[in-house]
Design goal:
The protein is of the alpha+beta class. It contains 4 helices and 4 strands. It is about 55% helix and about 15% strand.
């Protein structure tokens, strides 16, 4: 008796018909490991507020953020730690589910993997320290961009890729 080959259905988005979930979870894990490695270095070698100028517009600066992006709710009194922890846990479960369903959509899944890795990287900080460790400090003269970390960068890249994926999907449908 001959074995039947599985039928692969091509997605309406980019990618093949297989679901390489392990690839996307590996990318997310790499983001977490690199993010946590940089944070261990910062916590190990810098005191809060210590800064090293790298260029005329960029410093490595140890900063603690008990809030979310742009220090949203940073001064809320402590409850925000568990609120943002809960959001990260829900996002982790949802993104993992989405990757199991849409892992064959390369750009979409790459975006989700970056967001997943960044969310877990910052979640580890919230659980371990009670705040997120930030260190990337960009500025120009007296203007300072909020200090951020590699997890934040991965989340931002993921969001940009999600927008690009949607633009490309709409263009293909037109």
């Amino acid at each position: 008796m001959a074995s039947k080959k599985p039928v692969l259905v091509k997605s309406s988005r980019s990618g093949s018909g297989t679901n390489p979930l392990w690839i996307w979870l590996s990318i997310a894990l790499m983001v977490v490991l690199i993010d946590q490695f940089t944070k261990v270095l910062i916590v190990g070698y810098y005191k809060l507020g210590d800064s090293t100028p790298i260029t005329s517009f960029f410093n490595i600066t140890r900063h603690h953020n008990p809030g979310a992006a742009f220090s949203f709710l940073a001064g809320a009194g402590g409850w925000q730690r568990w609120f943002f922890t809960g959001i990260a846990v829900v996002a982790t479960v949802f993104i993992t589910y989405m990757l199991t369903r849409h892992g064959n959509q390369r750009l979409f899944s790459f975006a989700l993997a970056m967001i997943l890795g960044g969310a877990i990287g910052n979640l580890i900080d919230r659980l371990w320290h009670g705040y997120v460790v930030d260190m990337l400090h960009f500025y120009w003269k007296t203007w300072h961009f909020p200090i951020f970390n590699l997890a934040d960068s991965a989340i931002t890249l993921g969001a940009i890729c999600l927008i690009l994926d949607e633009i490309l999907r709409v263009r293909r449908a037109a």
